[in-house]
Amino acid sequence: MDKVYLCIDLKSFYASVECVERGLDPFTTNLVVADPSRGNGAICLAVSPHLKTIGVRNRCRIFEIPKGVEYITALPRMKKYIEYSADIYSVYLKYISPDDILVYSIDECFMDITSYLNLYNLSARDLAKMIIDDVIKTTGICATAGIGTNLFLSKVALDVMAKHADDFIGYLDVEEFKKHIWYHEPITDIWNIGRGIARRLEKYGAFNLYDVTKIPEEKLYKEFGVNAEFLIDHAHGIEPCTIEEIHNYKSKNHSLFNNQILFEDYTYNDALLVMKEMVEINVLDLVDKHLVTNHISIGIGYSKDVIKPTGGSRKLDIYTNSYKLLNEYVLKLFEDTTDKEFPIRRMSIAFGNVKPEEFASLTLFTDLEGEQKERNVQQAILSIKKKYGKNAIIKGMDLQDKATTRKRNKLVGGHNGE
Question: Which H helix or E strand runs over 335?
């Protein structure tokens, strides 16, 4: 039996939650989810479906909302959205096993519904409608759905077809894909094709997926490397990967990553303070998970892209989770690779090739007593933070004006965590 997949998206999720919480209809209410304290340039995380009908796009900035349009501004409440997302996932579990569900984001998921069609004696469209009707009945949140014979087709059916359907459900198999999607423009409407890829395809005269099928494969591989395989498959409506394979996938290499967009332009010295805070956070994460690393990397982005991002990576001679050692290595890398003349706006740090603590390295110069004292302090800090909150214990550097840790500890996903 051919596979049948369902891709469900919660319509304007954050904005819909805020409307439901206020007893308002998101299809008749003008509401944006944004933090006005960040200025008129703040990004609207979501706009209500009604605002979209008058041309306000999702993820716009506050100043881009047309003058004269009256709307409600809702401060992001990430914990509230997570609660709603969990409640909606519980609805899914009434019908589908977790083994057949792939959570894609807080407001979107894939389901393998192949075996459930006979179980419920329903068509794919009827099963999709039953689930999304239950979601709106239980939570008040409207959902849209895409049905496809593979994961890619279900996603494209959701993104392109569902919005034009009376029941908000789209369907694609390979034949329907060739009929309705091959010539669809702009090509950026297609999953995983952003503006950068679209610009590179334009060099070969490709403005839709049908055009992509006419480009010789050797040219695509030369342009996109191994990623050309996905582009070629998707241009033909093919996606061999299944939810089961994704669940069973085990990465050979693991890393811990931390990044942030700063609230304002930072000088080199102020950014150095933030980098120290980020090292502290990552090291505590290593200790908490009983991991060690032998690879560090950083990335620095500058205000208004005045120059290209900088950064780099280094492999260490040892595996460690010592804050003293890793802080020294990271700050040296920061000093060697960061431009000191330009304002900084984005920062990232990663510890790569992480392994269990038993891989920790010892040398003739290892201060075992000193490392054990440091470990005891780190464990005590973790214990206090877990019991009383992340800001229950902080370092003196976190109290400086340009420090970000205390504020970020109150955020969820980079936004207000209320």
Answer: helix 323-337
Contact 339, 302 (CB under 8 A): yes
> Do the domains at 14-76 and 256-416 have one common CATH topology?
no
Is 80 exceeded by the pLDDT of residue 376? yes
DSSP code string of 135-157? HHHHHS--EEEEEESSHHHHHHI
Q: What is the DSSP letter of 160?
A: I
Token output for 272 = 């150095």
CATH topology of domain 14-76: MutS, DNA mismatch repair protein, domain I (3.40.1170)
Cβ(322)–Cβ(362) under 8 Å? no
One-letter-per-residue 3-state SS of 299-328: EEEEHHHCCCCEEEEEEEEEEECCHHHHHH
Name the residue among 8, 3, 63, 56 with its Cα closest to residue 29.
56
CATH number of 183-246: 1.10.150.20
The answer to whether 180 and 189 have CB atoms below 8 angstroms apart is no
CATH class of 256-416: alpha beta
* Strand 291-302, strand 355-356: pairing: antiparallel
CATH no. of 5-12+79-178? 3.30.70.270
Q: Read off the pLDDT band of 252 (50, 70, 90).
A: confident
Edge-to-edge strand ranges of the sheet holding 101-105: 101-105, 108-112, 5-10, 143-148, 169-172
Is the predicted pLDDT of residue 363 greater than 80, yes or no? no
23: left (phi over 0), alpha (psi -120 to 50) or beta: left
Q: What is the pLDDT of residues 99-152, one digit of tens each?
A: 999 999 999 999 999 999 999 999 999 999 999 999 999 999 999 999 999 999
User: Do residues 291 and 355 touch, judged by C-beta distance below 8 A?
Assistant: yes
Enumerate residues 6+ apart whose C-beta is below 8 A from 118.
none
Q: Decide if pLDDT at 362 tops 80.
A: no
pTM of the model: 0.80
Please tell me whether residue 189 adopts helix, strand or coil conformation.
Answer: helix
- How many of the other CB atoms lie within 10 Å of CB of 95? 17
pLDDT of residue 364: 58
Domain edges within the chain:
5-12+79-178, 14-76, 183-246, 256-416
Residue 412 has pLDDT above 70, yes or no: no
pLDDT at 314 over 70: yes
